[in-house]
Amino acid sequence: MVQEYQSPVRVYKHPFELIMAAYVRRFPKCPLIPVFVDSEIVSENQSKDGSTLVTERRCVIDIDAPRLLKRIAGVDYLYFIQKNTLNRRDRTLRIEVHNETFSSRVVVRECCNYTVHPENEDWTCFEQTASMDIKSFFGFESTAEKIAMKQYASSIKKGKEIIEYYLRELEAEGVTFIPRWTPPVVSGTTRAIPVKGARNGLDSKDTELVVGSPDDKLDADYIRRYLGDLTPLQESCLIRLRQWLQENNKGKIPKDQHVLRFLRARDFNLDKAREFMWQSLTWRKQHQVDFLLDTWERPQLLQDYYAGGWHHHDKDGRPLYVLRLGQMDTKGLVRALGEEKLLRQVLSLNEEGLRRCEENTRVFGRPISCWTCLVDLEGLNMRHLWRPGVKALLRIIEVVEANYPETLGRLLILRAPRVFPVLWTLVSPLIDENTRKKFLVYAGNDYQGPGGLVDYIDKEILPDFLGGDCMCDIPEGGMVPKSLYRTAEELESEENRLLTDSIYKSASIFKGAPYEMLVEITEASSVITWDFDVSKGDVIFNIYHSKRAPQPPKKDTLGAHAITSLGAVNTQLIDRNWVLGKDYSMVEKALTCREGESVQGSHVTRWPGFYILQWRFHSTPACSASSLPRVDDVLASLQVSSHKCKIMYYTEVLASHDFRGSMTSLESSHSGFSQLSAATTSSSQSHASSTISR
């Protein structure tokens, strides 16, 4: 495998000529580089006018490798050929290096350039690229590669120190200025020949270095100031990924801080980070995320009921986001807004977080690339473990993890109730391991003591609802009125969905034409869970089991009755010839559900086979469980709206081991936030596994 290296632009705030005088002092050998044993000049050629000097050296390197490896290789030293091309007219030095030892087994190439800074001609820039391809090395290819990379990284780090050392040495000798090269004056000529790169009256003290522009090469000082301390190889990964983006991405190039996040998320594996980032860029382009902050208008519902907002910063200068999750009506928000708008809300918060990190980097004068999130769980209870809501949360987490890596610096979870471990069991598998390590959980009032919030947030900006003196201007949440809930059709018709499908589905139930759903179970003890709302009419809910697969009737079953379009009539799974108790059996008691009620529940299966969830029209007397639609009933149902019911439903099947890990989350609970009134009505026929709320 070919290993490559690309350095950032390193800037010396000294003229090119003085840097060259310091550079030549490292030859023939340099005590500051112990592995650089010696060098000799093989050839040296200079142009007639003296503007160009080409020097070729043979350098001797003592690699810090195990003695055994050296004996196997049969060498004590490695030999490299270095070719230096100094152009005094253009004020450039190009250094080309290749290995002489083991050249048939290992190919090493290095290229370095010293040039004049484009914005300040009294400063000098340095860039370096290198590659190494170990084809074979006595069976120790991996070991040799690690040793070489370690040695090379060490020498890179010392490079600038060595130049600065010899600059100080020159200064001690009284050499602080070296005139620029000028072409020889032709006899009889008095006119001065212009010199390329003349100062034109500029003073280096009056010129500021401009770095960090997306179109410029990265400067080492800029990296330290805005991105933090990186190893030479990490700098190389950043620069190479950035170059690849400039060459291949036709859209907006992400800022350097964001590129670095993707590298960190993949431990600076360039190939993995490149693939990871490309997927995210494709997603951003597809959904126009780059314009989200300019185009997203928060619905009034979010402004009133979404209990979260930005609140100053923590002690490290990171932006602080406060979320009062325990006060939020998660089901109400999902039902009233849909997953699409909730996801856009979360994405806008992440985009805002990226912007705030940039601002705080400028304000505090140090790199800030992530934020702190404070989550208050006071008020969290079983209603927050409403299964579709948890699933929507998991899907949102997936999108955020895939597109905003390494943005969470710390997550402070306060006043965690006893039910929190259940929620954590459901959510944690989708959260990256490095992110999970940043979670700090405080139960009860533990956050008030030593090791609590004051260790991370200054006391004067602690939110008032946590006992601090600082007003926290975020909504208090509360129940979303059920009158604001949207229908399944409205939720499913969202355009430009960031999620591929909707949690909820809708169904119509006609008098004599129940709606049936087939669930195939291959493992006994699997768990069927359900959550549905009756939006129109009254229904009876049943669950049946059969060992054989139901065969839906053919489309022309009713052809003899001259009915050409029965799009509104549901497909029946229970055959008219089946006998209850013989061909199929009822596994849950029938549950009567009234208009406006919400029903949640679960069933632990006893046998594999086919389970049928059935919703049928409720009338007096109730229809027979196994009855098929009569033509007269169907025709009547198409004409009379009072013979039609509507539901919005969600179902899921869990494996038995998953169910045991989250048993509490599937227990039915009173959904107080979904009530139209404070009363809760449970049918006398209701099985213990289901709960109804109005």
Automatic annotation (TrEMBL):
Gene3D superfamilies: CRAL-TRIO lipid binding domain, GOLD domain
SMART domains: SEC14
Domain (PRELI/MSF1): residue spans on this chain: 2-175
GO cellular component labels: cytosol
GO process annotations (BP): negative regulation of RIG-I signaling pathway
InterPro entries named in the record: CRAL-TRIO_dom, CRAL-TRIO_dom_sf, CRAL/TRIO_N_dom, CRAL/TRIO_N_dom_sf, GOLD_dom, GOLD_dom_sf, PRELI/MSF1_dom, SEC14/CRAL-TRIO_domain
One Pfam family, short name: CRAL_TRIO_N
Start and end residues of each CRAL-TRIO domain: 298-474
MF GO annotations: RIG-I binding
Superkingdom classification of source: Eukaryota
Start and end residues of each GOLD domain: 500-653
Protein's name according to its UniProt entry: SEC14-like protein 1
